[in-house]
Amino acid sequence: MCLDRDHTYSGPVSLLYNLDNWVLWAIWLLAIPVGGYAFVHALMQRADAFTAADKLTKPAWLGITGASALVLIFFQGGPLGSGALFWLAALVAVLVYIVDVKPAVVGVQGGGQRW
């Protein structure tokens, strides 16, 4: 059995062959506005809401989300680039803010589910 690495595929096979690159590229592009949203949301909240929700302080979350947003923007290539570990850590930090901190801070300020 010969594995020819230089062989190019056509049609649907080519799409599936490169699907992982397309998915990672889409994740990279979607992570940038998510990081910006997390930073802007942290910026707009009251400082006492973070401590009342038993989370880190507002300046700490501004630093975490701001640095994470910059890493998501400037590490070109996202999860396929040379700084993939930093990029992944930044994405996790932003997602922790959105999934854990944001609902707690909004709940303390009197907001609730808006479904």
Tell me, what's the shape? elongated
Most strands sheet? none
**What's the total count of β strands?**
0
Average pLDDT figure: 85
- By DSSP (H or I, 4+ residues per run), the number of helices equals 5
- Low-confidence runs (pLDDT<50, min 5 residues)? none
Q: Can you write the helix and strand succession as a string?
A: HHHHH
Distance between the termini: 57 Å
Radius of gyration: 19 Å
Q: In terms of structural class, how would the helical and strand content be classed?
A: mainly alpha
Task: State the helicity in percent bands.
Answer: 55-70%
| Strand percent estimate | under 5%
Précis, in short:
With 115 residues, the protein is mainly α. The chain is 70% helix and 0% strand.
